[in-house]
């Protein structure tokens, strides 16, 4: 039986997952969360998109780590992700429209990348963006070695003394609690959040939605009743139905 999902390497950047054939295919870059690049979750999400006809590129932006340790999100250069996005566009299997999909810290990363590229009027900005469980403000650095479960002494979702992101060599303007200026991005935007999220409050997505509407934007927004930070089986199936439909409309 021929493979329905095949891997293809972008030299110096990493692997992609996509349908068999010569392409070009509608394409999505996938950004992982605080679980890190080596956990496999972003590769699994990429494979799901690939099974539905997309070329998907799980880009690992976290630093350090291994299969047993997530590494950290501290001083991660967002402009390196812009370079990876440009390399993806140059890949021969990639179609003319490229989307961006991030979950949790990856959603934060995606919204920051879009707002910064739009602010600086850069070429190559993604044609569509999906963000699941996003914050509405810049969050602090995260190091998996110091992570504690919610309720444990010393628990914190991020470390406000450390900077998670840099842009063109500086963390200026990316300090924790700074609003993410996603209203600068004029393209189609998909936002989703579990209403019972215990990690990132659903109110963050509600604030993003209101702010976008105040600026004349009409994002596609979905709230999943009864779902936590990551949906369960039924919720995830519904999420992927909506996500795939969004990217099919915007990237085909």
Query: Please, how many domains?
Result: 1
Can you say what the CATH homologous superfamily is? Alpha/Beta hydrolase fold, catalytic domain
> In one word, what is the shape?
globular
- The CATH class turns out to be Alpha Beta
Under CATH, the topology can be stated as: Rossmann fold
Q: Number of helical segments? A: 5
Instruction: Please provide the ordered H/E string of secondary-structure elements.
Output: EEEHEEEHEHEEEEEHEH
Q: Percent range for helical residues?
A: 25-40%
Strand order of the largest sheet: 4-3-7-8-12-13
Approximately how much beta-strand content do the residues carry?
A: 25-35%
CATH architecture: 3-Layer(aba) Sandwich
Overall pLDDT score: 92
Number of strand elements: 13
**Biggest β-sheet description:** 6 strands, parallel
Main structural class: alpha/beta
Please compute the radius of gyration using only Cα atoms. Answer: 17 Å
Detail the poorly predicted runs.
none
GO molecular function: fatty acyl-CoA hydrolase activity; serine-type peptidase activity
Keywords: Hydrolase
Domain Peptidase S9 prolyl oligopeptidase catalytic: 158-251
Organism: Franzmannia pantelleriensis
């Amino acid at each position: 039986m021929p493979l329905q999902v095949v891997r293809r390497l972008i030299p110096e950047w990493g692997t992609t997952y996509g349908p068999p054939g010569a392409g070009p295919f509608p394409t999505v870059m996938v950004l992982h969360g605080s679980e890190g690049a080596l956990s496999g979750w972003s590769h699994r999400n990429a494979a799901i998109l690939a099974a539905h006809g997309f070329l998907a590129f799980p880009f690992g932006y976290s630093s350090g780590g291994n299969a047993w340790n997530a590494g950290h999100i501290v001083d991660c250069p967002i402009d390196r992700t812009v370079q990876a996005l440009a390399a993806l566009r140059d890949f021969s299997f990639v179609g003319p429209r490229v989307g961006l999909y991030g979950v949790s810290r990856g959603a934060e990363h995606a919204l920051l990348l879009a707002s910064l590229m739009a602010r600086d009027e850069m070429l190559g900005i993604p044609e569509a963006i999906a963000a699941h469980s996003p914050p509405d403000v810049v969050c602090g650095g995260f190091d998996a070695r110091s992570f504690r479960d919610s309720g444990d002494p010393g628990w914190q979702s991020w470390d406000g003394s450390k900077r998670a992101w840099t842009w063109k060599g500086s963390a200026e303007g990316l300090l924790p609690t700074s609003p993410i200026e996603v209203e600068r991005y004029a393209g189609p935007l998909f936002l989703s959040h579990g209403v019972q999220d215990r990690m990132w409050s659903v109110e963050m997505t509600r604030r993003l939605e209101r702010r976008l509407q105040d600026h004349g934007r009409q994002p596609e927004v979905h709230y999943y009743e009864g779902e936590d930070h990551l949906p369960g089986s039924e919720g995830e199936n519904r999420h992927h139905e909506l996500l795939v439909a969004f990217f099919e409309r915007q990237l085909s």
